[in-house]
Amino acid sequence: MSVIAIVGGQWGDEGKGKVIDLLAEKARVVARFSGGDNAGHTVINPYGEFRLHLVPSGIFYPQVTCIISNGVVINPAVLLEEIDDLHNHGVDTSRLFISARAHLIMPYHTILDGLEEDRRNKGALGTTRRGIGPVFADKVARLGIRAGDLLDRDIFWGRLSAALEFKNIILTKVYQVSPLSAEEIYGQYCHYGEQLAPFIRETSSIIREAATKGELVLLEGAQGALLDPDFGTYPYVTSSSTLAGASCIGTCLGPRESDRVVGIFKAYNTRVGAGPMPTELKDEIGDLIREKAREYGATTGRPRRCGWFDAVAGRFSVQINGLSDIALTHLDIYDGFSSIKICTAYKFNDEVLTSFPSDIAILEKCQPIYEELDGWQESISGIRNFDKLPAAARNYMSRLEDLLSCPISLVSIGPDRRQIISVKELFS
Ligand code: IMP
Fold first, then answer.
1. Which of 28, 86, 157, 174 is least crowded, fewest Cβ atoms below 10 Å from its Cβ?
2. Which of 11, 13, 227, 296 is the best mutation target for the ligand 1 pocket, counting ligand atoms within 8 Å of the beta carbon and taking the most?
3. 81 in a domain, yes or no?
4. Total number of domains in the chain
5. Which residues, other chains included, contact 371 with Cβ-Cβ below 8 Å and sequence gap of 6+?
6. CB of 272 sitting under 6 A from ligand 1
7. In the predicted structure, residue 1 carries a pLDDT above the cut 70
8. 246 and 303 part of one domain
9. Does the C-beta of 276 come closer than 6 Å to ligand 1?
10. Residue nearest (by alpha carbon) to ligand 1 atom 5
């Protein structure tokens, strides 16, 4: 078996939860390595329909140990609610562990995220307002509070009071809102700490042990490549790395230890929040994709912007992640389309660009250059064998493989766990 990193190839919401839910059947460990409860992984299985924000999507299998790793930021209230919901649906969470190194989202992080979005007004980034930017900023500013701090009340009080002294200056002097009470937050978080204590531990040894024994370890990313703070559409990005490289630092493994890197791509593109998206369709085709695929944010409920597949961005994503495989999702959404477009290059002034620009000022002015392929009329959601897919669907996949220089190993043709076709073997 092997270590497989699974990452979003576009702007997030590609269907990572579903793919991990499928692959986890053979896994020993599933470790989430980045992001926070800004992510929303939808999983539909015999237990019901779930929107997991923090708990790794492997939780539904009894042999899988699930880890919320050091690279993740945790809002304890959200996590406890999610654990409760899983319990209520009969899902065992005794194999869930939280890294003592994972940073905690504190009440001032969510408040500051909202205040800053409001201050930016028309220039708002469209964040999920879950405190993600402020908590990662504190992590690197060495002002953060980690899950392990909850296990020692003196340490926790010391870190909280030091951080809050500074945050209250920002809240009152910069944003002119009321200060927060250290005692109140302390009481609330000590209560969370009591409930989370059984889950908090040093987790890297669990991952390392499974990897050393050759058991299957899945490293679960969050969001997508184009929201990466280094390589995404900065500043319209999230605040932790979404790329496969982060699966090492966000867990405990070294760069040589992943055997495969699977990028999840939708058959089309979506984006939530502000920022450039060259293939966005503000017409009835975009609306049709949104309604057919229920493209509304799992975390915020916001309508997602929809558009044709952008192969310029897709190729860039393959490169910056070092993908070995692609899992293509939502192919069934194109059932009944007479033709399907793929963006193969951008027109920028008089130039034709075939690589993804680093500057959004350029990207915002890029016009997509499309190639048009035949669609198919039949429903593909009942098909379980690649060879049985309509020729036009196979042709579409084959064209994407060529444009992205990466094989498609899985294709998903509906929301259910069984609606996925293995095209090439992923496991060695
Ligand atoms: P933040 O991560 O909440 O700071 O939001 C920054 C940007 O990332 C915004 O455009 C969000 O809409 C986007 N974003 C964050 N998480 C997700 C996700 O899970 N799916 C899609 N977009 C996301």
1. 174
2. 227
3. yes
4. 3
5. 341, 342, 344, 399
6. yes
7. no
8. no
9. no
10. 127
Q: Are residues 112 and 233 in the same domain?
A: no
Q: How far apart are CA 110 and CA 278, in angstroms?
A: 31
pLDDT score of 385: 94
Backbone φ and ψ of 48, nearest 5°: 140, -160
Final residue of a domain: which of 196, 229, 245?
196
Q: How far is the CA of 127 from the centre of ligand 1 (A)?
A: 6
Instruction: Pick the catalytic residue from 37, 41, 149, 310.
Output: 41
96 shares its domain with 220 = yes
CA–CA separation, 185 vs 52, rounded Å? 25
Reported as a single tens digit per residue, the pLDDT across 53-86 is 999 989 999 999 999 999 999 999 999 999 999 9
**Ligand 1 and 23: CB distance under 6 A:** no
Residue 428, domain member (yes or no):
no
pLDDT digits (tens, 9 = 90+) for 116-152: 999 999 999 999 999 999 999 999 999 999 999 999 9
Beta carbons of 160 and 186 less than 8 angstroms apart: yes
274 shares its domain with 417: yes
Is there a single domain that holds both residue 354 and residue 210?
A: no
Q: How far is the CA of 336 from the centre of ligand 1 (A)?
A: 31
> Can you give the CATH number for the domain in which 135 is found?
1.10.300.10
Domain carrying residue 139: 103-196
Question: Which region among 96-105, 222-231, 251-260 has the lowest average model confidence (pLDDT)?
Answer: 251-260
For residue 219, which of 329, 72, 406 has the smallest C-alpha distance? Answer: 72
Q: Is the shortest distance between the CB of 8 and ligand 1 below 6 Å?
A: no
User: Are residues 157 and 215 both part of a single domain?
Assistant: no
The two structure tokens encoding residue 44: 């539909």
If asked whether residues 204 and 184 sit together in one domain, one would say no
Tokens of 206: 């669990």
Last residue of one domain, picked from the residues 149, 167, 196: 196
Is residue 13 annotated as a catalytic residue, yes or no? yes
